[in-house]
Each structure stands twice: as structure tokens, then as C-alpha cells.
Amino acid sequence: MTEIRLSEDAIRKVTHDLRGPVVNMRGFVDELGMAVTDLIALVEHHRGGLSEEFSCALLEIVNEDLSPCLKFLGQAALQFEQRIDEVPQMIDADLQEHSEVEA
After folding, report:
1. Residue pLDDT, tens place only, 45-92
2. Spatial separation of the C-alpha atoms in residues 30 and 44, rounded to whole Å
3. Where exactly are the structural domains of the chain?
4. CA 87, CA 23: separation in Å to the nearest integer?
5. Disulfide engineering: 74 pairs with which of 29, 32, 38, 91, CB 3.0-4.6 Å?
């Protein structure tokens, strides 16, 4: 039983330690998303002072490259965080199953 408890504690520590980088990643994705929104607004506001070619090229990069990448990263981080959250539940289910088999 001590070995099982030790394993549970180790796995819970690892899942806790994995959450930190995921939270950071989600925070950076949110921050970059706000920067993209600000950049679009800035280009739109100064569109008269920028060449049409430059404005269109910049907006294309933002809308077709940056925004989809940030969306993908945000979704991936969320999925990873959900999987991390499932680990203790899977351990509990395995332990319960193991206890039932021994009984």
C-alpha cells in the first residue's frame, strides 16, 4: 500500500508540475492574441498613412498566419491541460479496479 501511495504522490506532483508551463503557454497565447487585435486596429487606424500594399500584406500575415497559429496553440494547450487533469482520475479508477480484483 505504501508503494501505491508513493506512486500516487509522485504522479500528482508530476501533474502539478506540468500545469505551470501549460498555464504560462495559455497566458502567452492570450497576450499575443491581444497584441494581434491591437496590431489590426493600429493598421486600420493608420491605413491612410500606409501604402495599400503594405497594409494588405500585414493584415494578410496577421489574419492568415498569426491568428490561426495562436488559435491552434491555445486549443492544444487547453487539451493538454485537460489531459493533465484526467491523470489523477485515471489513477483513482485503476486503484479502485486493482482493489476490487484483490478482494
Report:
1. 998 899 999 999 999 999 999 999 999 999 999 999 999 988 878 777
2. 21
3. 2-102
4. 17
5. 29
